[in-house]
Amino acid sequence: MYTQAMDTMGKEAGDAGKALRSAEEMQRQEAFDARIDAGEFIEAKDWMPDHYRKTLLRQISQHAHSEIVGMLPEGNWITRAPTLKRKAILLAKVQDEGGHGLYLYAAAETLGTSRDQMLDALHTGRAKYSSIFNYPTLTWADMGTIGWLVDGAAIMNQVPICRCSYAPYARAMVRICREESFHQRQGYDALLTMMQQGTDAQRAMVQDAVNRWWWPSIMMFGPPDDQSPNSAQSMRWGIKRVSNDTLRQKFIDATVEQARVLGVTLPDPDLKWNEERQAHDYGAIDWAEFWRVIGGDGPCNEERLGARVKAWDDGAWVREAALAHAAKHAPERAAA
Ligand code: BYC
């Protein structure tokens, strides 16, 4: 009510109204900043600056798109899993990713944009999804490697988002992270079985998969901090808690020991422990490749987007039937 009254005043009273309105805006902005500084969570019903809302919507919807596009490279292997146990695990993992997409779309919808609008942005190439899903899954070892490296990188990136200042996103991330750790472990377990009980050909297949997924996995954290246009503001707002480069370094440091236990070599001759930094140095990342892939020119971009658009078109009759069913039963619901 208060805001509407101020708006009316603004229209009627010209510059004086505008001044009043902007004074009110400034107060709200200051109150919002103070809440962020105090580490409070922001709920959907709370006032928030437009740019904060847009930034969240961009990140959460891209994250949701990544989950459902991320189902495709692995879905490709469900029918070819080597045992019933591995098939059941992979099926459960891919279903979890569909569920993660749903939690995230629901969190993004609280910001006032519908799921249809978000999906339209994905289907028309206006929204991004994670670069990693534009690479092909060529062998069964890719399933284990995605679990180990891709889900491992996802956990490293997503655990800090459980403390994101926007509460609906933070709540969704708590559930997602629990499931992601199962995903990472199942991948590592599949690789360990191949490395310890497999044939030479299977061990070579694992090494080949690691060679292909290592660099794309460390690109997942996004561009270097000094080339990341969104980081400073997102960190200021508590949307991002840890920078792209810091997370990438933590992931590399954690993964080196896991690779040693597994018995695979990470494909980076410059990867070595730096005593002074107490962290691993690593070789130059091919950022031109990263920008090319997120710009739409990766090995599988067309195939991935084509599969999502086809699924949307093929599912039209389900959406229409659900709406017709809801309309038919609306009078009963209204009477109840
Ligand atoms: N891929 O300023 P920056 C998963 C874009 S799901 C594509 O650093 P920001 C999983 C970025 O959007 C994995 N685009 O951006 C699922 C920005 O472009 P716009 C997804 C990327 O937002 C199923 C531009 O580059 N995880 O793991 O501050 C199975 C400049 O970057 C990428 C999430 O979405 C990328 N890798 O930071 C298994 C987590 N990196 O939007 C696993 C949530 C950057 O300005 N998201 N870009 O046009 C985040 O934490 C942050 O959005 C990012 C980027 C760290 C990804």
From TrEMBL:
Matching Gene3D superfamilies: 1.20.1260.10
Gene Ontology cellular-component annotations: cytosol
Taxonomic classification: Bacteria, Pseudomonadati, Pseudomonadota, Betaproteobacteria, Burkholderiales
Entry keyword set: Oxidoreductase
Entry's Gene Ontology BP terms: phenylacetate catabolic process
Listed name of the protein: Ring-1,2-phenylacetyl-CoA epoxidase subunit PaaA
Domain of life: Bacteria
GO molecular function terms noted in the UniProt entry: phenylacetyl-CoA 1,2-epoxidase activity
SUPFAM superfamilies: Ferritin-like (SSF47240)
InterPro entries given in the database record: Aromatic_CoA_ox/epox, Ferritin-like, Ferritin-like_SF, PaaA, PaaA_PaaC
Stretches the record annotates as Disordered: 1-24
EC number of the protein: 1.14.13.149
Residues annotated as transmembrane: none
One Pfam entry name: PaaA_PaaC
